Amino acid sequence: MSKIKLLLDVVSDLRALADSLQAVADALGSNEPKEDKKSEQPKHEKQPEEKQITLEEVRAVLAEKSHDGFTAQVRGLLEKYGASKLSQIDPSKYAVLLADAEELK
């Protein structure tokens, strides 16, 4: 083979290599996660959820009010929320019941 033929083969191989490298680069580029506009926007901070009030917390406050002489008013609050005893009250109403109990003076 002549030297010119060998050089042409090298050039051809280099072009094939360049095409292969371009194909690999394109494949890698398409696998990268795309940046969403959502990720660029600042995330809203979650507002702290209202602390769940437990039965024991309400019971402690009501017991204290009853001990302070408000037994009839405590019974009235229970009846206001449709129960004859604290365990019958829906836990979602504990916060309102506690607020009502705090107002007893």
Would you kindly provide a brief summary of this structure?
The chain has 105 residues and is mainly α.
Structure description:
Helix 3 (55-80) packs across helix 4 (94-102). The protein has helices spanning 3-31, 37-40, 55-80, 94-102. It is rod-shaped and about 115 Å long. The protein has 4 helices and no strands. It has a domain at 55-103.
Uncertain runs? none
Question: Could you tell me the number of beta strands?
Answer: 0
Mean model confidence by pLDDT: 83
Oligomer: single chain
Rg from Cα: 38 Å
Question: In terms of structural class, how would the helical and strand content be classed?
Answer: mainly alpha
Euclidean distance between termini CA atoms: 111 Å
Task: Give the helix proportion (percent range).
Answer: 55-70%
Order of helices and strands: HHHH
Main pleated sheet? none
Apparent shape: rod-shaped
The proportion of residues in beta strands is: under 5%
Count of DSSP helices? 4
Compile the SSE list and pairings:
Elements: H1 3-31, H2 37-40, H3 55-80, H4 94-102
Protein name: rRNA biogenesis protein rrp5
Region (Disordered): 27-53
Biased composition (Basic and acidic residues): 32-53
List keywords for this structure.
single chain, 105 residues, mainly alpha, 4 helices, 0% strand
